[in-house]
Design a protein that fits this description.
It is built from 2 helices and 6 strands. By secondary structure, it is an alpha+beta fold. It is globular.
Length: 145
């Protein structure tokens, strides 16, 4: 398990774009389960949508990608010099809205990886029900100095 402080040592993201609060499970280079507590105070709820707040699907996908980056950065000796960018997003499906008070469980499984790319399958659940899924391609690059 990783706490928010340990996650912040791995990822360059900060509020309001850090979308993983905790890592619950890790199988090195294979699988990771992360958690995002979706609160009414999230900045995006101010405009998406007033009176009927829904977490934007693109941010659910971003939360999945951040979990994937954590999975690969954990075992990397020079991780402070690396970033992960989106290469592609395939088969994205949004099944149910995510609303304030939900606890988003993000499960990422490695489909295949190479030295600078990785393809992962992501699934987001609330109360055990799949709310979103996608296949993500991540590309590792050197962090600009």
């Amino acid at each position: 398990m990783l706490t928010i402080h340990e996650i912040m040592k791995l990822l360059p993201h900060r509020y309001p774009l850090l979308l993983v609060d905790r890592v619950l499970e890790i199988e090195e280079k294979k699988r990771l389960v992360g958690l995002k507590n979706v609160t009414a105070n999230e900045q995006f709820f101010q405009g998406h949508f007033p009176g009927a707040p829904v977490m934007p699907g693109v941010l659910i996908i971003e939360a999945m990608a951040q979990c994937g980056a954590i999975l690969f950065l954990l075992g990397m000796p020079d991780r402070a010099n690396k970033l992960f960018y989106f290469g592609s997003i395939d088969k994205a499906r949004f099944r149910k809205p995510v609303i304030p008070g939900d606890q988003l469980i993000l499960e990422l499984t490695v489909l295949h990886s190479r030295s600078t790319t990785a393809k992962l399958r992501g699934e987001a659940k609330v109360d055990g029900v799949v709310v979103a899924e996608a296949e993500l391609m991540s590309v590792m690059v050197d962090r600009p100095q």
